[in-house]
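Could you help me review a protein record that somebody else here produced? What it holds is a sequence and that sequence's fold in token form. I have pasted the whole thing underneath without changing anything:
=====
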Amino acid sequence: MPGLNEMDEDEAKSLNEGDHPQNESDLPPEYYQYKDEGCDLADSCLNCPFPQCVYEQPRGRQRWLKKLRDREVVRLFTGGGKGVKELALMFRVSPRTVQRALKNTLPKGDRSGDE
């Protein structure tokens, strides 16, 4: 393999631009073979329930998991008869986090018994 000082101008230029020639177009997905391994949220990308990949959004996975937690907190608070302190212990968060989840999800009148 030639050293950097032995390369001609075209070879050096191709290293800067990557290994793909300028005139080679990008292949459409249907002509490209790849493993669709999915992620921890879906078995495969093609069968994913999300309209957009959560990993493409800033803190997408974290936001999605927080929404799930908040829904479960509200479900247990309204239907399960659990209190704020009990929910905080169950989900290993502060009572204030539970109160925020209830405030952001429940209508104003349904938040009785926050303590």
Observations:
- The first helix runs from residue 9 to 17.
- The CA atoms of residues 50 and 56 lie 11 Å apart.
